[in-house]
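Bump. Still looking for ABC transporter transmembrane region C-alpha cells.
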Amino acid sequence: MEKVKGKSILAPLFKCLESMFELFVPLVIARMIDQGIQKENIGVIWQSLFLLLALACVGCLTAVIAQYFAAEVAMVVGKSYRADLFHKILSLSYRDYNELSASSLITRIGPDIFQIESTVNMMLRLLMRSPFIVVGACIMAFRISVPLSLLFFLLLLLLSFVVFGIMALTMPFYKKIQLSLENITRKYRENIMGIRVVRAFCQEEKEEEEFLEKNQNYTKVQIRVGKISALLNPMSMLLIQLGLMGLLYFSSKMVNDGRLFQGNVVALTNYMSQILVELLKLANLIILMVKAYASISRIEEVMERKNDGSPASKGISTKPYDPAIQSNLLEAGKKSG
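Sorry for the wait, here they are.
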C-alpha cells in the first residue's frame, strides 16, 4: 500500500487540474462570441479556437494520467484485501467456517472486493472533481452576474434535495440486495454440491421452488430500488430545464438593457449544465461508497474472527471444513480480479 500512496494523492490532484481547464472553456466561448463573432474579429475567433483546442488536449492528458493512477491504486487495494482475506479464510476454525458458510465467503472474496476496487477507483476520480466543479461553476457564475448567480444557488439547493433525498430512500435496500444475492449463491452451491442426494430423494421440484422463491425476492428488491432510482434523472432534468428557462428569461432582459452580453448567457447555461452532471456523478459515487462500506463491514466480520483453539486454528490442518472451498475461493478471486 505504501508504494501507491503518492499515486493516490496525485490522481485526485490531476482530476482537479482537469476540472480547472473545463471551467475555463465557457469563458473562452463567451469571449469568442462577444469579441469575435459579433465584432467580426477573425483574429479573436482563431485565438479562441486554438485556446479551446489546447485546453482540450491538456485536459485529456491530465484525465488519462489521473485514470491510470486511480486504476493502479484500486487494483493494489483489491489485491491487498483479497490476499489478507484468503489467508484468513484458510485459518478459520471449523465452527467459524460453518457459521459463515462457503457461499458467503466466496461472495466476500469475489463481488465484495470487486465492489471495493470500483469504489476506490471512482473516489479517486470524482470525490474532489465533482465538488470542485460545482463550487467553481457557482463562483464563475457569480463573477459573470451576481443577480443570476442567486438562481444558481437556488437550483443547486433544489437539485441537492432531490439527489440526496432519493439516495436516502434507496440506501437501506442495498444491504438487503447483498443478502438476497448471498442466499441465491448459497442455494445454488448447495444444489451443485448435493445434486446426487437431491436426485436420490426426488427433491428436484422442491429445490427448484425454493431457488425460484429466493430469486423472486432478490428481483423484487432490485425492481423496487430501480423504480425509486429511476426518478433521479427525470426530476433532475426537469429542475435543470426550469432553471435554464428562468436563466434565459432574466438574462434576455439584462441583454436588452446592456447589462449582460450574449456570450455571458452561453457561459452561464454551460455552467448550469456542468452543475447538473457533476451532482449526478456525486450521487452515484455516494451510492457506490455506501455499497463499499457494506462490503468492507462484511470483510471485517471475517477478519475479526479469533482462533478458538480448534485443530484448524492451531495449524494442524489449514483446510476448511469443505475441501472444495479453496478451489472455489481461488476461482472467485481470479474472476473478481
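The chain has one domain: 2-336.

Edit: fixed formatting.
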